[in-house]
Amino acid sequence: MRLIIILVFSITILNAQYLPNYMTKQERAYLPNYVKNISSVGITLPPASAVRSVAEWEEMQAIVISWISYKPQLTEIVRAAVEECKVYILTTDSASAKNYLQTENVDITNVKFINYGTNSVWIRDYAVNNIYTNNVDSLLFLDWIYNRPRPRDDTSASPISGAFNIPLYQTTQAPTDLVNTGGNYFTDGFGTAFCEELILEENQINNDYDVTPKTEAEIDTIMKHFMGINKFIKFPVLPYDGIHHIDMHMKMLDEETILCAEYPSGIADGPQIEANLQNVLANENSVFGDAYKVVRIPSPPDLNGDYPDGSWNSGYYYTYTNSLIINKTIIVPTYYQQYDTTALRIYREAMPGYNVVGVDCDDDSGPIFSSGAIHCITHEIATTDPLLISHKRLSNTDNIYTNYEVKSKIMHRSGINSATLYYKTDLLEPYQSVIMNFTNTTLNEWTGYIPVQTSGTRVYYYIQANANSGKTQVRPMPAPEGYWSFYVLNTTNITSENAISLKIFNTQNYLKVLSNTNFNSNVIITNMLGQQVLNTNIYFEKGENSITLQNYNLNKGIYLISISYNNSIITNKFVVK
């Protein structure tokens, strides 16, 4: 009888082409009979070699999507992604999908098809996860138990693995039978991962999935052995995000930078998101040993002006963090121009050189109405030949005396033949090159030096590495169009009778400038990524002057302000709360 129920249920949900990202009432009723009928097709023991989970900004050979619903959005995703990699489409009707794409003038040269039909479009949650053995060696796939009773979704890892001919590992058998979902997971690529505490609930004693009960420590052990996650940071779930997927409000842009959704004060999930973020900033460090950098991105109300609040007319969960980074392109969900322009600008400023593409997720039948966007309906497939370049970006400095040291972890399975540091101080000028030397065998670290610069200079730079195999890679990936940058500041105090002083009030949104004279000054404000967010001219009078920060629409965060005076620059740090 159970097999008949399973068959009927499978057919029913397979034909329900617009299954939401959340669990339906019908599915919840079926849930107790679901996991016990799962059969494993992959390897259920952890990999024998040490493994490293792959970060989303690393090199990708492909993305996978399921051609079952939201085809206008999928079409635009394919249009952008084929410029960067191959696109594999899961469908039982490749002729129809191909015709649809060609009718929309999409180049399908890089499009491949996997003859497999899924239950839903939400492939982020059920597709394979990328891991490497020994940091940069062999690519493996890892498959969890999907937290929705959707059999065709949950078994899609097998045809995906077969299409790429990559070994498949699975956490589907006791005692390592782990329920998890891709939307509630991201990693820095170096053993740290983030999620909401949904994973604890779904694997706890008396869980709804009938999997082996697990403590948090036991879950952490499974993630360590199967995915190389040594630090698994879990946030309290948000009160109004019904699916509790972290990708709806947070993601990492690189090893040290968190992109975080921001709401108006006291609105929607804003307070809990902020509390989660502050907990990380207070208690956790990036792989480089210091505090995470934060880029905030405003979350808009829906078209009715409503935010999600749990009421009967609660707003939809519009999100800009639910984006896809695919090599040199970032595909961002969009909704309406008033907020879209700000969101796209924030991405472009945070990741210079990347091709930032907006895809409307708010048309009459867009995925956002089913609690998902771009990240939710895509999944990346990592390259089989990774050349890893990891670098802690140089911060703004007042050093005008010694060269600037640039260190980078660089790895390839064939070994690294050479590494080069490129820099310039004018975007209109060509880059200058500096040879990097192999300086630390244990850390696979290469070091080079940018020549010292004068005060007021902005330095742009990137790294290129060449493997013994002949493979070449750059970081940031869009280099030379993309780059890291920092400012050379001068914090020398002025001691003349016309001296000024800068006093910072962190508890209020204004700065006080005390002056012994009248003067006109160029004022520059930069964020902690070294990006200029304000460059304006201000007239200061003798005595006390106030700079009201609300006038400049600064997001919450740490900034540097530089005030020019008598051919010198006074710089100080301040916080917008």
Give a topology summary:
Elements: H1 2-14, H2 25-30, E1 51-53, E2 60-66, H3 71-81, E3 86-91, H4 94-103, E4 111-115, H5 123-126, E5 129-133, E6 139-143, H6 151-154, H7 157-164, E7 168-170, E8 186-187, E9 192-196, H8 198-202, H9 216-227, E10 231-235, E11 250-254, E12 257-262, H10 270-283, E13 293-298, E14 324-326, E15 329-334, H11 337-350, E16 355-360, E17 379-382, E18 388-390, E19 404-411, E20 416-424, E21 432-440, E22 445-450, E23 458-467, E24 472-475, E25 484-487, E26 500-505, E27 510-515, E28 519-527, E29 532-540, E30 543-548, E31 557-565, E32 568-576
Parallel strand pairs: 2-3, 3-4, 6-7, 9-10, 12-13, 15-16
Antiparallel strand pairs: 1-5, 2-17, 5-6, 8-9, 11-12, 14-15, 18-19, 19-22, 20-21, 20-23, 21-22, 23-24, 23-25, 26-27, 27-30, 28-29, 28-31, 31-32
As a percent range, the share of helical residues equals 10-25%
Uncertain segments are: 1-16, 492-497
- How much strand? 25-35%
Give Rg in angstroms.
25 Å
CATH topology of the largest domain: L-arginine/glycine Amidinotransferase, Chain A
CATH superfamily grouping of the largest domain: L-arginine/glycine Amidinotransferase, Chain A
Helix count, DSSP H or I runs of 4 or more residues: 11
Mean pLDDT: 90
CATH class bucket of the largest domain: Alpha Beta
Query: What structural class is derived from the secondary structure elements?
Result: alpha+beta
CATH 2nd-level architecture of the largest domain: 5-stranded Propeller
The outline comes out as globular
The structural domain count equals: 3
What is the terminal-to-terminal distance?
A: 60 Å
Number of strands: 32
